[in-house]
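Quarterly update from the structural biology core.
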Amino acid sequence: MGLRIHNTLTRQTEAFETLEPGRVRMYVCGPTVYDKAHVGHAMSSIVFDVVRRFLEYRGYQVLHVMNYTDVEDKIIARAAELGLDPVELASRYQREYEEHLRELNVEIPEMRPQASHEIGTIIEMIGRLIVGGYAYPIEGDVYFRVTRDDDYGRLSRRRLEDMQAGARLEVDARKEDPADFALWKAAKPGEPAWPSPWGDGRPGWHIECSAMNLRYLGEQIDIHGGGNDLIFPHHENEIAQTESLTGKPFARYWMHNGMLQLRGEKMSKSVGNLVTIETFLAEHPADAFRLMVLNSHYRGPLSYSAEIVQQSEAGLERLRGGLREARPSAEGEEDAATREALAQASSGARRRFIEAMEDDFNTPAALAAVFDLVRAINQARDAGVGPDSLGLGQTVLRELTQVLGLRLDRRVAQGGDVAPFIDLLIELRQRMRRERQWEAADQIRDRLADLGVTLEDDGTETRWELR
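Predicted structure, tokenized:
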């Protein structure tokens, strides 16, 4: 049937058709870089990393843009607390976030514009909106006229009259309508500011993404993504600005991921229930977090708890187990039926994986196909299938897990490659066991366990893995 994507704009799952054959223009709203990033930010980046990886797997050329908001009230307030320049503070956290993305095996988008570097484009766009009658300046500020957009509210399913009735707090009497939103903000003492035709100031939050889209992807894009907390007002206002200027539909498909929740609440700094990416990666493998995200459909909420992380780590070990080598004894004859069963399981897993991913990126169903393949590989190994036949199944396993961004690498640890040292200790332990020095052998096993290395004895062979 081909790829189908749930479109937030229409609330329908629609067949995927690109503006240009074989090419996807995808824009994803990135973080506001004012503090250490938490795992909720990582969740959104992983969701759209998997979207990109699958599109490329199916032959599309993907032009992926992710912005950084580095001029915003939270950044200014945080910089004032620390006595730092706001732009420098944002730059520090941006670099830190990208390092975390690499650790999480997220393919870094080709273009990562920053609001502070796009002021010229933003000012030009605001000027054109004013000329078209869609915006108006007043005392150094510029506001967008929501009443000029007949379809305003269609993404979030909100009616303008309801929004007007609900505007009670912090109403700016200078605005023509309470729902009008800022495109440009007049400079305040101590804040970063740039010259403009309306006076020194800085851009509003919403205009930056519209301007970056126009500059880097053009008037129309295929996919616009972000967290579902951005539907209103951010993405609603992006549509209003961009389509008022171009007269064309902005994005063909609006994709929104659900929120990561801790104890039933959205993870955020304001709530104070954060788990930073840095903290998570210091205690758990990066693949464990990615697997946790993949086990839930991207549009739904994702619960975070120690138990769920533990379950993901256990699932990760199951996947890694599928890559174990054939038994040393499996060098001679192998059962043809078993070999054929593994071949069938491999092709079937690939087919089911593609079908699941084409159904609005249904990663839980795609993972189910992968785990079924792992079970088939393990059964074939236990039945004595040799390395060549087993390797065919493992090739498909690696192919599918790479599409999901899973590395399944258990031998990389901080400080370099520890494999030779662990292998040496295992050889020593095996000798202790042969000499029936059970207590010494157990001490080696227990000490390795304390260091995060688990051993699995299989006859005369011992395998190990880093937790």
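The CA atoms of residues 288 and 316 lie 6 Å apart.
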